[in-house]
Amino acid sequence: MTEERIEYGTLEPVPDDHRDIGFLDMLATWIGANGNNGTWFIGGVVAGAAFGGAVLVTLVANPIAYLIMALIGYIGFKAGVGTMALTRPSFGIRGSYLPSVLNATQFIGWTAVNTFIASISISFIAAEAFGWPAYGQPGASKVLVLGILIMSVLHLISVAVGHHSVKIVERIGVVLLLILGMWESVVVIQHIPLHEILTWQPPAGKAMPLGSAMDAMAAFSLGWVPAIAEFTRYTKNKSSAMIAPMIGANISLFWFAGVGILGAIGTAIITGTFDPNNSDPSTIATKLGLGVLALVVIVLTSTTANAVNLMAAGMSLSNIFPKLKAKHAVWSVTVISAFVTLVPVFLASFLNTFIAFLDYIGMVFAPVFAIMIIDFFTLKKRKYHVRDLDRRESRYWFSNGVNWTALGVWVLGVVVYFILKQIPWFIAGIGATYPTMLIAALVYWIASRNRFLSATNPSSDHVSSDRVPSP
């Protein structure tokens, strides 16, 4: 059978014979997605909780996040549609525009984060080759802008043919990142005794509370969840949709966040100064003397992570504008992300922008994911009806296209997150993200169960999400 289209829109269910992503493909995709500059940077940021605290939050926050990702990935595998299309049964057809806007915003933001880090590398490369000012030096802004333009061109190339090109760039990125991660780890361990790393403490004014580190790490990993169904909808079986992403994302996160933790602490011991603003891989690689080759790898591997980011942002846009072709949606968000990347160049500290961005993710997405999981696995008994996802007056139309119960619980979740972030016990302990999810899940279940228990059986002309037939 000849494939008539390369990429399906977010509302178009992928049929069985067009599902071409296997277990190893998904494993490589999620190793490559987390094996990136942002993962190193978050490792360097949570190093402010000291080695023990940073390792603790890495080992606790991330497996929980990737279990949540696997559950939503399973929904995508069953229904064959994109993640934001999967918010329609819970939020309503029009209500899904809210998480879609939030999602497009956050993936454009992640693209900007990785692009900015890559542009830092480009500035160091330009300093070595041409003597231009590097990041942190007067006059470096113009070089950073040039780096952003170069990265935007690379992004357009990487997403040129949809999920197929993502598979290719991820495979290349995995190999390069494994080599560079091992290299940096060896350099740190060779130069610094292990006991110094284990016992190092950040300066009092720059220490990060454990709960804040937990929220930062949880938000970092939860940021991937809205991208998962864009890939699991193309997978061949359940293990490829659930197990492979969990294994790949966790292994890569543990490794590269660990590299970031070691690099930041090692650099602080060598230089005598700990500055979270300089936790980016480019600055650390330069201070550790890894050379231009390491910087080139950082630039290339930013493209692998951003290929996933841009695909997810584009699919969110197409949920709002279904007539917009998938490739045009992805190209649009690529251009938008280039402009967003300019914000920390001229208007703010990159670290402050990054932390505020993570707080945004935790605050707005924790209740979204809680609602989606409760809706599918408990209220809807693991069955969505894909023909109703874009049908007015269907079971997912609710009240003029909006499920006000879900929207109200989402607002409550945002308020709860904001309140918990102000309570010292949560700041110093478990953070606000996962407690917010639990509260939102419980409230949504209580508020919605009576309606679904009394609902009539679906009519026979609807299809369930078990699998989508071939055309």
From TrEMBL:
<keyword id="KW-1133">Transmembrane helix</keyword>
<dbReference type="GO" id="GO:0015209">
    <property type="term" value="F:cytosine transmembrane transporter activity"/>
</dbReference>
<feature type="transmembrane region" description="Helical">
    <location>
        <begin position="357"/>
        <end position="377"/>
    </location>
</feature>
<dbReference type="InterPro" id="IPR030191">
    <property type="entry name" value="CodB"/>
</dbReference>
<feature type="transmembrane region" description="Helical">
    <location>
        <begin position="212"/>
        <end position="231"/>
    </location>
</feature>
<comment type="similarity">
    <text>Belongs to the purine-cytosine permease (2.A.39) family.</text>
</comment>
<feature type="transmembrane region" description="Helical">
    <location>
        <begin position="290"/>
        <end position="317"/>
    </location>
</feature>
<dbReference type="InterPro" id="IPR001248">
    <property type="entry name" value="Pur-cyt_permease"/>
</dbReference>
<keyword id="KW-0472">Membrane</keyword>
<feature type="transmembrane region" description="Helical">
    <location>
        <begin position="107"/>
        <end position="131"/>
    </location>
</feature>
<feature type="transmembrane region" description="Helical">
    <location>
        <begin position="143"/>
        <end position="162"/>
    </location>
</feature>
<dbReference type="InterPro" id="IPR026030">
    <property type="entry name" value="Pur-cyt_permease_Fcy2/21/22"/>
</dbReference>
<dbReference type="GO" id="GO:0005886">
    <property type="term" value="C:plasma membrane"/>
</dbReference>
<feature type="transmembrane region" description="Helical">
    <location>
        <begin position="329"/>
        <end position="351"/>
    </location>
</feature>
<feature type="transmembrane region" description="Helical">
    <location>
        <begin position="40"/>
        <end position="60"/>
    </location>
</feature>
<feature type="transmembrane region" description="Helical">
    <location>
        <begin position="174"/>
        <end position="192"/>
    </location>
</feature>
<feature type="transmembrane region" description="Helical">
    <location>
        <begin position="397"/>
        <end position="419"/>
    </location>
</feature>
<feature type="transmembrane region" description="Helical">
    <location>
        <begin position="243"/>
        <end position="270"/>
    </location>
</feature>
<keyword id="KW-0813">Transport</keyword>
<keyword id="KW-0812">Transmembrane</keyword>
<feature type="transmembrane region" description="Helical">
    <location>
        <begin position="425"/>
        <end position="447"/>
    </location>
</feature>
<protein>
    <submittedName>
        <fullName>Permease for cytosine/purines, uracil, thiamine, allantoin</fullName>
    </submittedName>
</protein>
<dbReference type="Pfam" id="PF02133">
    <property type="entry name" value="Transp_cyt_pur"/>
</dbReference>
<feature type="transmembrane region" description="Helical">
    <location>
        <begin position="66"/>
        <end position="86"/>
    </location>
</feature>
